[in-house]
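can u do me a favor
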């Protein structure tokens, strides 16, 4: 008898880092696997990311003579959590630290190459591993491997709903009404809700930040919504990374970022990082930057001004300027530096931003590689003209600032040129932290702790209350949890154990 709707063993909803890893693991476990991605191309927030993963027990650490282990990583993650520690899901933290080495192995097996690990206190040893040449490599390598493992990948296919029968999730309905069956399980890997509409944001986020844009406008919390609709709940819904000021991403990819991020190219990049002298290397590495860089707060502490598109200053730069920036015309602002500051932000510790590969980026890096957001001139009217701002207003703004010591809050008067203007920048919600309640197999749980049969969640959609402060833990979680959820769904029966063992990760049907 033919089935009324196309059927698969496992359906994965969302093709970012977690979804691609889940698809790969499910397909490799022998399951007939379908990945559905609503956008025209794969990638999600994973593709927008810097590409750093915090990991212990890696070959890169071993090669650098760094001894590390899951228990130390577990303890250090708690130091990052700080006051959020009581809200942390310690079972999932344990899942992270115990499985990140295996996830990194899988990533390297599909051809990904990482730079040598770099420190980030309070991690006791260097744990931050940056993918090379940029985060597009995750998407390319994992999708190729998933295809090779026999998975089917469909883009432009938005999942609108889950179907259920007898309390079990049986498949999905697409936005055009098409129904697809999942015999063993559906894995929600649809990301976060930083780009969601006002309804979902009103349910989850503090009022003061609901109007702030998400960097990824297609991160609309679809998985959280679908999970809630059948009885799960979202843990830590109010937690969010941001609002944070970031420069706009480069408007068009540089010639270098158009080179496919293959293993050979990544290996060449790593070789260059080890062999080339700094002055030659920096422009090369900066040209890989595809992401939204965040200006250092030190710029504002040292006396830089925030200016809107009308050439006006609009807030105390040292007192949480992110919300005022988000309320400016076009939601845009610029950072204005005088001549002394322009000289100062050329050397440690006065960096403009961190940047993948180079670590810390200075004004000369921006002057060379980010001409779209770097403007300089000897006078304020000339500067304004270059950046398309009203020159009279900019000159008047600086004069008013210098005439009123109380407006400066202890910062120095604004000096002479040559001036630098960096921007535009915006305030963004980078991503939200609320994920569906999950157990250590990434099964989705009801609020009472019982599992919803046939439903799994991973990555941001399945964050389950895990606190991922510091850098590199969100991508790490996407790959760790996607790996476990994909394998668990492929092996799924209703008596699935609470924790997926290595044997189950390798199971075949
Ligand atoms: C600028 C920036 C830099 C970052 N840098 C880092 C970093 O260096 N290290 C780090 O650890 N973290 C970083 N992060 C965070 C990290 O990128 C994310 O937490 C992580 O990528 C989330 O992965 P995911 O697979 O859960 O979601 P995503 O990568 O967002 O994937 C979700 C996918 O699901 C799709 N989808 C959504 N709804 C549906 C639907 N209804 N039907 C079908 N498909 C759907 C989406 O289109 C998307 O492709 C950064 C974030 C930002 C914004």
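np, heres the sequence
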């Amino acid at each position: 008898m033919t089935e009324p709707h196309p059927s698969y063993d496992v359906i994965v909803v969302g093709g970012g880092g977690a979804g691609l890893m889940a698809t790969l693991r499910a397909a490799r476990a022998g399951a007939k696997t379908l990945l559905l991605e609503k956008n025209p191309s794969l990638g999600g927030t994973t593709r927008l990311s810097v590409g750093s993963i915090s990991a212990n027990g890696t070959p890169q650490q071993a090669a650098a003579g760094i001894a590390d282990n899951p228990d130390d990583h577990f303890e250090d993650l708690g130091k990052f959590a700080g006051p959020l520690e009581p809200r942390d899901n310690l079972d999932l933290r344990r899942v992270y630290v115990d499985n990140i080495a295996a996830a990194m192995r899988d990533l390297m097996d599909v051809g990904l190459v990482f730079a040598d690990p770099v420190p980030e206190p309070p991690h006791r040893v260097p744990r931050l591993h940056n993918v090379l040449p940029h985060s597009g490599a995750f998407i390319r390598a994992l999708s190729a491997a998933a295809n090779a493992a026999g998975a089917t990948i469909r883009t432009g296919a938005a999942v609108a709903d889950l179907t259920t029968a007898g309390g079990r999730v049986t498949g999905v309905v697409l936005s055009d009404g098409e129904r697809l069956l999942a015999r063993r399980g559906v894995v929600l890997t649809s990301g976060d809700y930083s780009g969601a509409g006002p309804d979902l944001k009103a349910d989850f986020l503090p009022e003061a930040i609901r109007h702030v844009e998400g960097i990824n406008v297609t991160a609309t919390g679809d998985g959280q919504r679908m999970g809630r609709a059948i009885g799960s709940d979202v843990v830590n819904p109010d937690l969010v990374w941001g609002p944070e000021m970031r420069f706009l991403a480069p408007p068009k990819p540089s010639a270098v970022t158009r080179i496919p991020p293959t293993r050979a190219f990544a290996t060449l990049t790593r070789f260059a990082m080890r062999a080339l002298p700094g002055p030659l290397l920096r422009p090369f590495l900066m040209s890989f930057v595809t992401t939204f860089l965040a200006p250092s707060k030190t710029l504002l502490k040292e006396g830089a001004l925030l200016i809107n598109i009308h050439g006006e200053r609009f807030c105390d730069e040292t007192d949480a300027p992110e919300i005022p920036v988000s309320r400016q015309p076009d939601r845009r602002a610029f950072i204005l530096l005088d001549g002394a500051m322009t000289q100062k932000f050329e050397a440690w510790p006065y960096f403009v931003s961190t940047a993948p590969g180079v670590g810390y980026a200075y004004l000369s890096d921006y002057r060379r590689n980010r001409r779209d957001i770097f403007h300089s001139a000897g006078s304020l009217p000339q500067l304004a003209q270059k950046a398309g701002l009203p020159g009279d207003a900019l000159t008047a703004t600086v004069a008013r600032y210098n005439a009123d010591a109380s407006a400066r809050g202890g910062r120095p008067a604004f000096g002479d040129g040559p001036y630098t203007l960096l921007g535009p920048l915006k305030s963004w919600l980078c991503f939200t932290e609320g994920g569906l309640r999950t157990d250590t197999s990434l099964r989705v749980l009801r609020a009472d702790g019982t599992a919803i049969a046939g439903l799994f969640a991973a990555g941001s959609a399945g964050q389950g209350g895990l606190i991922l402060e510091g850098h590199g833990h969100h991508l790490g979680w996407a790959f760790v949890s996607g790996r476990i959820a994909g394998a668990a769904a492929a092996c799924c029966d209703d008596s699935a154990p609470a924790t997926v063992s290595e044997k189950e990760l390798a199971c075949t049907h």
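The domain at 293-428 is CATH 3.90.700.10 (Flavocytochrome C3; Chain A, domain 1). hope that helps!!
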